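Good morning,

Both structures are done.
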Amino acid sequence: MRNGFHLATIAGIEVQVDWSLLIIFFLITFSLATALFPAWHPDWGPLLSVVMGLVAALAFFASVLAHELSHALVGRSRGIDVKRITLFIFGGMAHMQNEPRNWRAELWMAIVGPVTSLLLGVLFLWLAGLFIEPAALKPEHPELTLAAMGPLPTVFAWLGNINIILGLFNLVPGFPLDGGRVLRAVMWGITGDLHRATRWASQGGQFFAWLLIAAGAAMMLGLQVPVFGTGLIPGLWLAFIGWFLNNAALVSYRQLLVREVLEDVPVSRLMQSRFTRISPDITVDALVHDHLLGSEQRAFPVFDDNRFVGMICLQDIRGIARGDWPQTRAGRIMTPAEKLAHADVQEDAATVLERLARRQVNQLPVLEHGELRGFVRREDIMRWLSLYGGEDFRNAA
């Protein structure tokens, strides 16, 4: 099952929305419509507050998309391939197909996101100011200034503040936040060692994450925390963000270790080259009883006159009713070869592992000039990592 849906393709970059985004979208709209906007504008009716809450939430996520697009476009100009952006509960993520080639590429790609958010914040505040009459400006009574704003400048004012907060938050030097990537780039430039720079930046990210968790716990206990305040729900939310950042910092470091171990390993060294092939005319019943049961093989290539034409896996068989197995031929339920994700025999194992994760499959056929040479399974790659990953990998796992 997909974790979201396709929203758009911008400059060749696919934009996906994770279902978790709906949670934070609802929370933002609800809090604006029931708390903030009524406090700023007691004269607004419920309908107007809800509509403006929806408009503000949509504009905020458009701002997050602009933040991530800036990462992707600058990264592309620096040789970092970004083909997909995902918007989810904690904001957005630009998915890099490869690590930055040098510290300067990392630095520019990382810093442009917060700068974009800060510029958007200043722009929205400027737009809000255009709608305010000079006589309505009362710096000593900001609540009166807010009350004098119409619906549109109210949304602009909120967007300005929230984008500035987003930009400043992302500048915190904790990996994988943008500030953590800036820190990694600087340390990479100083030491010339990406591995060490990533470890330090990841540790900084974990330290910041545990500060958020501790602050959230204190808020849940009723203590007043500077900047964040107090309360059960805000404290729970802050601790949850800290937990997420801690996991993200650990995962980011592990991903680098995995890539370092696997990037020079051709998939041909890991693939299973001995496998059972089947004919498109074999029945599902015969396939299960003659080949599947008692075998470790879970995917069967289908050959027609020595030509690889497709593949059948357990999921294909599960889609057929048990009573139909004797009458159903393999050729009818197989996935045709041209529709299969596959690995090239010379590809490195790091790229193939990423493809397995992206496709959410456990094995891929390995081809050479269109000819099937074997299968590479997730477990084959993990076994290699356990043997050759080294002490750093085992400690981080």
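Second structure follows.
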Amino acid sequence: MGACDFVVVVRGKNAKDAFSKAVQEARYMNGHGGYTGTIAEKGEFVMVGTTATEADAYTRSQELLGANDSRISDKWGPAGCITIVDGSTKDGTTLYLFFGWASS
């Protein structure tokens, strides 16, 4: 079995809430059978930074994936999470970018 990289942006009350939403959505879209190559395969995440914009978060995620950063390089390990500061809204939610490698 191999691995695929994934990147997903989701809004939540906090990072844990956003992660849960992202995993649930991926499981709905890709099934529960495993080896989807999506965030559905992840059980946890690690915070790796904060950026001002979604574009900056995407760029940073690609840099970390390309560098094979040990925090997110294991397809069985945690996803990376970047908080997007400009993604905060009046309803108290924040935008988060989750990324990493997942079994496929």
